[in-house]
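re: ur question from yesterday

yeah so i grabbed the chain u mentioned. its 344 aa long if i counted rite. heres the sequnce exactly as i have it in my notes:
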Amino acid sequence: MQSGAGLPGGRPAGGSRRDFLVHSACVAAAGSANAAAPTPPEPAPPLVFVSNVLADYLQLLMFRLRRDTFAPFDPPGFAQAPSLDELVAAPEAVASAGLTRYDQLHGFIATAFAGLPAKRVTSPRPRILCYSDNPPSLEAVQAVVAAGAPFFPAFETYWRQSVQPLVQAQIAGWREQDAAFHPLRKVIELQRMPLRAPRLEVVAMPFHPSGSGNYSPPAIFSSLFERPNLPWFLGHEASHLIWSEALGRPLSARPEAARVTALATANRVDVEETMCLFMQAEVSKRCGLSKPDLRMSTKLEAGPQKRLMIALEDGWDDYLADPRRWPDLQAYVLAKASAVLGQG
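ran it thru and got these structure tokens back, copy pasting raw so excuse formatting
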């Protein structure tokens, strides 16, 4: 998951009242980007931009995140309706499915989220069900959805008047940035690994705590930024997808990953998340939307993650210049993580 909240390069509008997986922001040195890889990079799938009023309502209903950017939605009785503490992926799935009617929700959630309380499933298709460590039961999710039904008509009116214009403006900015900078192509070129998807949905979700991704269909989801910065959140969430078993290659598939995973666990460092934080700023910088001297290591607290981030930043020019030594970003990150975390 990703977040640029409160950090340079792009910040979601408004604040969040709950943590969303560690999504801070990161940075990479601008470096010499023109070094050619031994083989041409994989083509980037096209981006499809999406918004969905029903998904936005579910996100607000379930998690009650308020934004300062627009007036609160607070009809009589809504505050007393039940909510969830766990970040279930139902709003994202509803957006990708294109549902529009409230009476579609019960059957869709019953099928798509039958695997709860598992965090993710691989069949009948790969899907993340919950982003929190302690997923709720399917019954708990359905109870919240049922209780929220009476308030959806009022939300539709509220959304069209107060929220939709901001969503449309955000998507318009994303479209312009995609046409001008081709950020997903840059992600794939820097990763030196493909994103195995026919297309990638990019969903604007104004009540999202920060950002997320999912596999079926391939999609990434983001809150609204004060200034649109598609490369910032795409660099993070698309990198997660590229490192997934469903759409790319997981880090665990590499023989040297077991040692690094043990070191990361001992040091309480999420290596993949650190990489994604690094990538979101690097892609933004390459598109001219973040300062070229931005170094996220200066924003991190002292400790193993900061040391790993410094190593990724300091060696970045070497990675870009030597694709034979570093055939892909996983090889580079594993080497740096092994060296840094192995020092204790």
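noticed a couple things. Confidence is low (pLDDT under 50) at residues 2-37. also The chain has two domains: 47-233, 242-341.
anyway ttyl
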